[in-house]
Design goal:
Largest sheet: 7 strands, antiparallel
Strand content: 15-25%
Bound molecules: 2-(butylsulfanyl)adenosine
Structural class: alpha+beta
CATH architecture of the largest domain: 2-Layer Sandwich
Distance between the termini: 70 Å
Number of helices: 24
CATH superfamily of the largest domain: DNA ligase/mRNA capping enzyme
CATH topology of the largest domain: D-amino Acid Aminotransferase, Chain A, domain 1
């Protein structure tokens, strides 16, 4: 009998484990990578299911389960981590009047409920001591956060100092940091021009911005903040509402959209009003927050492990519209990836007209089972780029000539070359790198972009024009352009021609690391190029590097290494490089520094874990300066491991098996002194 029961339970236990894993990953992608993979609603539904399963199988309790702690954005380098005075919790979500009624039923009768807008940014905790802002902590894992005070001080509405006699010695204000819509759109436009990845929504942009190490750049982006919660001892006021009004008097930026309500009807009216009106606000909101007004009642209600019982969020439904999928077209990008695009009957959604949406790849189209002629649901939730989330039922046809889903093209829509599908990737790619127009133009656009060679005057349109006229076929052709050729073009006179030539001339001084980035080797981004250029400071040395040697560079994995090796195996690239060299580009970096000593000569050293005294890059430079070699993986040739905290378990196991010594930071520094 027992066995039969466990056999029935088994799939649910497996589901529980799978859900824990999926939600952990979703938390990591949301909080650390700023790349959400699940919508809030999907996340909540899965979390709810996990809670149900955990209640069903108490023997599977795990304090590390995502049901037991809030997601974490810790792990960014360079900020001091500080323990919160009071844990920073999250809020339970609700989506309907019924759910709000369920919550209200559990409160003392006759409670006052404060309704506020739920700002969609990231939470911040500001500490004031004797009226002076001393810390600004992110939520982190709820228990400790990163101190990002230097960045927070760039926000004009956050006071650095409160000059009053009637304030408590210590208090904390919590609120939301946001990037206004206007700033968000300008930032993304700029990033598009620079070919940098776009932020999916203002929240991700605000989060990425707050974690920058450069407060000047943070200031330039223009964050703002709303504060919504005051904590501390001996604070004035008996209600939440009063406290917020006091904070306003002290000079804090408190929203005007706060209302004390006495019934669910009043709450629903507030929701109905703001669900429309929020579209006119300068910042993103994704719902409202309901809080018990009376502070004594709040205290009595208390908290669960993750959320207060005295507050709840109501999430506005994602806006969704049904529209006709007219056609699927295929777009070829700079790297040859072919992306299917849905061309829609224009439809109004969250204030903008939507007529195109990405369909990502072949698998995505198959999973939705859509084809031209279908009525499809388009949604604009947390993401700015509209998504197709499903289709309406259609009258089934038995006509065998109509395929159920359109087949993905087998040849490049731009140049006709048969497409290839790289192992492990969902995308189809056109391999004709040097003959496919969007790839040719894309490479040139990347080469001249601001973070690469920064050639002013050569924009997308001009590149297209010069390409059409047969004057530009590859990046080396840029350096053969003549004044007369350019000036002869429509829309380009002598003056623009001179500007372009000046820009081209100036690019010859751009340092080696940026030249390397500009070449557009697949997956070699700006940071990776810098790291590679530091180790290989001439193009010749890089050309002869093996994939294994390249993998020893921080951030370079087998895929990137292989792309680099392949790049240098292609004779067409070598010809281009030769022409660039002749044109006078910087193909060498500063000469490597003289070795500081030969104390580590002949040694292969692996760096693993996190360090507190120096950064990984600094240790790497030290190893090289003292004649040693930094290698990526542990083998019997490894001399020792410079081991920080939380060393990778695989490396640790291998080191133990091979009997390789682990050296602490302190021991290492002593050794090279
Ligand atoms: S109160 C103990 N009020 O929503 C609860 N939170 O999903 C303190 N949020 O972590 C939070 N607007 O980042 C509160 N008016 C508001 C809010 C708000 C946005 C955020 C906050 C919180 C998240 C929970």
């Amino acid at each position: 009998m027992m066995d039969l029961f466990s056999a029935i339970e088994e799939p649910e236990r497996e589901e529980l484990k799978a859900l824990r894993k999926e939600l952990e990953e979703a938390n990591y992608k949301y909080y650390v990578l700023n790349m959400p993979t699940l919508s809030d609603r999907e996340f909540d539904e899965k979390m709810h299911r996990l809670q149900t399963l955990e209640a069903q199988f108490p023997d599977m309790f795990d304090p590390k389960s995502p049901t037991q702690h809030v997601g974490s954005d810790l792990g960014k380098k360079g900020f001091e981590q500080v323990k919160h005075k009071y844990p920073m919790l999250s809020l339970a979500n609700s989506y309907s009047r019924e759910e709000i009624e369920d919550w209200v039923r559990k409160l003392p009768s006759g409670v006052e409920i404060v309704c506020e807008l739920k700002y969609d940014g990231l939470s911040i905790s500001l500490w004031y001591e004797h009226g002076v802002l001393v810390r600004a902590l992110t939520r982190g894992d709820g228990q400790q956060g990163d101190d990002v005070i230097a960045n927070i001080k760039t926000i004009p509405s956050i006071p650095w100092r409160i000059e009053r006699d009637d304030i408590p010695e210590f208090f904390e204000l919590r609120g939301e940091v946001l990037l206004p819509w206007e700033r968000f759109e300008a930032l993304n436009k700029e990033r598009e021009e620079q070919e940098e990845p776009l932020f999916a929504n203002p929240r991700n942009a605000a989060s990425g911005t707050l974690k920058l190490q450069d407060p000047k750049e943070v200031a330039r982006r223009g964050l703002t903040a709303y504060l919504y919660y005051m904590l501390g001892e001996n604070l004035p006021g008996k209600t939440h509402y009063e406290r917020l009004q006091t904070a306003k008097e002290w000079g804090f930026h408190i929203s005007d959209a706060i209302k004390v309500c006495h019934s669910v009807d009043e709450v629903m009216a507030y929701i109905a009003y703001w669900d429309t009106e929020r579209k006119n606000l300068p910042v993103a909101t994704d719902g409202i927050v309901l809080k018990v007004n009376n502070l004594a009642q709040q205290e009595e209600l208390g908290y669960t492990a993750k959320t207060p019982r005295w507050a709840i969020a109501y999430k506005f439904p994602a806006e969704k519209q049904l529209t006709l999928l007219k056609e699927i077209t295929y777009q070829v990008g700079r790297t040859g990836v072919v992306t299917p695009v849905a061309n829609l009957e224009p439809v109004q959604l969250s204030g903008t007209v939507v007529q195109r949406a990405t369909l990502h790849n072949e698998d995505f189209i198959r999973s939705l089972d859509i084809r031209p002629g279908d009525m499809v649901w388009v949604e604009k939730g947390g993401e700015i780029i509209p998504k197709i989330v499903g289709r309406a039922d259609r009258e089934e046809t038995s006509d065998p000539r109509i395929p159920r889903t359109p087949s993905f093209p087998s040849c490049c829509p731009e140049c006709g070359t048969p497409l290839v599908r790289v192992d492990g990737e969902a995308a189809w790619r056109c391999p004709n790198e040097t003959g496919c127009p969007p790839q040719i133009k894309g490479k040139i656009e990347h080469f001249v972009s601001r973070k690469a060679m920064d050639i002013e005057g050569l924009g997308e349109e001009t590149i297209d024009l010069l390409y059409q006229k047969g004057l530009l076929h590859n990046i080396a052709d840029i350096y053969s352009l003549r004044q007369a050729d350019i000036a002869a073009q429509e829309r380009l006179g002598d003056k623009s021609a001179q500007n372009i030539l000046d820009g081209i001339e100036a690019s010859k001084k751009v340092p080696w690391a940026r030249v390397l980035f500009a070449l557009g080797i697949r997956m070699v981004g700006e940071t990776t190029a810098k790291k590679i250029a530091r180790v290989y400071n001439t193009i010749d040395s890089l050309q002869w590097a093996t994939a294994e040697q390249l993998c020893a560079i921080e951030d370079v994995g087998p895929q990137i290494a292989e792309n680099i090796v392949k790049y240098f195996e292609d004779i067409r690239n070598l010809e281009i490089l030769d022409r660039l060299r002749q044109a006078g580009l910087q193909m060498e970096g500063e000469a490597a520094a003289e070795p500081a000593s030969d104390k580590l000569a002949g040694m292969s050293i692996v760096i693993s874990g996190t360090f507190s005294l120096h950064s990984r890059d600094e240790y790497k430079a030290m190893i090289e300066a003292h004649g040693g070699k930094n290698v990526g993986s542990v083998s019997k040739k490894t001399s020792f491991i410079l081991a920080g905290e939380n060393m990778g378990p695989e490396k640790l196991k291998k080191a133990e098996a091979l009997g390789i010594r682990l050296m602490s930071e302190e021991e290492f520094l002593e050794m090279i002194k």
